[in-house]
Write a structure and sequence with these properties.
- By secondary structure, this protein is an alpha+beta fold.
- The chain is built from 15 helices and 36 strands.
- A seven-stranded mixed beta sheet has the order 2-3-1-4-5-11-6, sandwiched between helices. A six-stranded antiparallel beta sheet has the order 18-17-23-14-15-22, with helices on one face. A four-stranded antiparallel beta sheet has the order 7-8-9-10, with no helix packed on it.
Amino acid sequence: MKAFSTQKIRNVALVGHSGSGKTTLGEAMLFKAGAVKRLGRVDDANTTFDFDPEETARKVSINTSLAPVVWDDHKINILDTPGYADFIGEVIAAYRAVNLAIIVVDAVSGVQVQTEKAWQLAETHGLPRLFFINRLDKENADFAKVIAELREAFGKAVAPTEIPIGSEAHFAGEADILEDKAYMYEGGEVIESQLTDELKKETAEYREHLMEAVAESDDALLEKYLEGKKLTHEEIAKGIKKAVATRTLAPVLCGSAHIPVGINSLLDFIVNEVPSPAFIGAARGHEPNTDEDVGRNATAEDPLSALVFKTVADPYVGKLSYVRVFSGRLKADSTVLNATKGVTEKLGHIYLMTGKEQQDTSEVAAGDIAAIPKLAETAGGDTLSDESAPIVFDPIDFPEPLVSLAVHAKTKTDDEKVSSSLAKLVKEDPAIRFIHDATTHEQILSGVGDLQLEITLDRLKSRFHVEADTSVPRIAYKETVKGKAEVQGRYKKQTGGRGQFGDVWIRLEPLAHGAGFEFVDKIVGGSVPRNFIPAVEKGIQESMAKGVLTHYPTVDVKVTLYDGSFHPVDSSEMAFKIAGSMAFKAAVKEAHPILLEPIYDLEITVPDHNMGDVMGDMSSRRGKIIGMEPQGHNQVIKSQAP
């Protein structure tokens, strides 16, 4: 593939609910642009984007994958993202690399949970959006209904630039609202014609929506529109690109990736109306040593800056780091600074990726996306920059894990292999966590959802040939006391020769939640020698770590050592340590010990019609409903639950 200037590069992400046809749309774009010779299909497990064995087996996207197309002498980098909520981290990472989110909506199902999530994340990242209503050839497809749902959910910024011609099995093309032209698809060819009178009436109402959204992006156009004057064709056409960039317009295109119909118009729109990386403005970051805010323009003249937004473990090449270059030029066989970690990295090859296929390139321009193999220290979210002009971009904010499993090796010999192999998989997907719980002594694998954890364990077996058993993690309860107690701990042992003797009196009382542990020395007159007092405290802390009731750690208590006695010959640090432990255990039993159960603050986003079911489920789990607030079509239930 030839080199493209920054002005001729477009970076887009296909996002939306699972099953809306994102991968099929990406395949249709590749096919129409001539990047592939056949139209890959998810059901046939032969797509360019879904090449991971887990993806082909399950027929769902699991990873974000990259493939470029050339259309009208422009390069469009397409990132196909998963639709399952379990893999929302992949979407968040992809958003850091693109300049447009193409939110794919099923013409039958309409607005779904991940449709709204994709929009909300685009808002958070300040990313322009475009809707593509897909599968219009399917039974019960309803373009007008979906448009109404989109406008209700996302406001007046939603405005179609084209409408379908025909419906369901008779869907055959689209009518361009701005140009008053019809584009029919016959035998894979696009036939242009004039709109019929019926179609002209249908497009008139939608043109009003388009004018309103475009006018919002420009003060002069807005003033003219509010005065009741019609915007000219030229004013609307010129304003669309600015309106998309400023997010006052979320244009809606339509088609069916399966046939495929409407793909040419989508590619034309991306090239003509979507802003290039150069149009967006400077990428902001900070200088690593001073934290001073700095920017990088998407030009070859600015120093190199690039963000690693994804890493994968390629079975043949090793680790591959996907990077979006924001400024300067990324060159093969060069040295760059990992400004996040403060280490240098030697670059060998640089690849342009089409699915799993790799094509060598000597350099990558600002605005483009590529992959670098075998970076030793670099991980997802790190910034690569010129050594003489370091910059650090904000790290990628991955979601917190919601589901956990305890992982055990099937055999003792595999213990270390399980840990090291899972550590490698965690580097590939930062939305997964793998930790050793010091309280329960279990290895805990955590992720956003069940499917994510299931696939991680399947990869553990297929890639590293290690099998593991899983179980529900033990809950890390804690112990504390509600009352006070004063007790004696006396340890005396005489077996001939020198004996052991330690004697202490302690006072145990509760502290506020989260206060931890406090030890107070109130010994006067030397009843316990100064050199033995640290041993008493150590004995108490060791008993706290093991607990008294159920062997969970004891927390939020205050222990005062106020009296005791010693033997000039038999007393020792060991004896006073044991005496302190005995006193603490006895005191806990007298001070009304209780178990503390972890309570989580929850925010559950749920469609209105499912709210009662979810609230009932929460109550059955001893949950407490704190409140509710509306969010679009959904309700956010705030609650607490053990």
